[in-house]
Design goal:
Structural class: alpha/beta
Strand order of the largest sheet: 6-7-8-3-9-10
CATH topology of the largest domain: Rossmann fold
CATH superfamily of the largest domain: P-loop containing nucleotide triphosphate hydrolases
Radius of gyration: 23 Å
Shape: globular
Number of domains: 2
CATH class of the largest domain: Alpha Beta
Amino acid sequence: MPETAIEIKGLKKTFDTDKQSVEAIRGIDLTIAKGEMFGLVGPDGAGKTTLIRTLCGILKPTAGTATVLGLDIITQIKQIKPRIGYLSQRFTLYPDLSVDENIEFFAEIHEVMDYQARRNELLEFTRLTPFRDRLADQLSGGMKQKLALAATLIHKPELIFLDEPTTGVDPVSRREFWKILAELMHEGITILMTTPYIDEAERCVRVGLMSGGKILLADTPQNIKRGMRAAVIELIPTNIHAASESLHGHPEVTEVQTFGDRINVVAKEGTTTEMVKRWLDSSGVTIQSIRAVEPSLENVFISLLRENTPSEMDVEATHA
């Protein structure tokens, strides 16, 4: 059995205001192994950031228990903090300081002595050595995120929390950032991250879908996709709105997911492309292409979200 990095039991977090009480985390149970990369995916307001901030000791839980690296997040948080790193959504670099000076600043915060060799190592690791004298304000979005990660790693944490680290970053920089994360995992560092990108979640060892303060499902991406007992037919119609309307009313169809100019029809097991084509032909809808596809992580997540928050889900899905 692998060692446990994070163990959560019945964790709850409620925010009380003058007018109402909001339950941001509602009884989460989760175990994450050491060396694992675990991705949390879910819509805005699902509770992902609240969960991370609670595990880091920034927020105090309302109920339940959690341990990080075998230490209690309430009674032993002082022992936890030197062993973890946290890259928040709004990680603040100092724009008037250079790359070198920003890392030096965070080294001093973490009381890292003789940090120069470690800084050089991190600059090479993040491919920032050629830019070490450049002001942080003059870096691209992707380079800023890599600098923020270097600052997060300066004290050699055993576990890092990353809250949507690639949001707003261009695709090339996202790929570079993920190469760095893969190398960190190979070094044995445990990673708990949130991401709005399904393709990023696919790269994690395990994934958890959060909605309404709960983790609806946690497993490997492969097992999650295998668990979807349905046929998925992808088609590109000449009239996407007419096709969507026609399919929504069909008794064999459980889900119609729109992605740009294409539609994923989630139907009962055994449904074929010929059957879907006949349904659309009878409604006067023509299609440019149609094929059966394996259920994607996105298909599963959208279906789960619709089941659990039907009034909040939009008809169209977005993806990057």
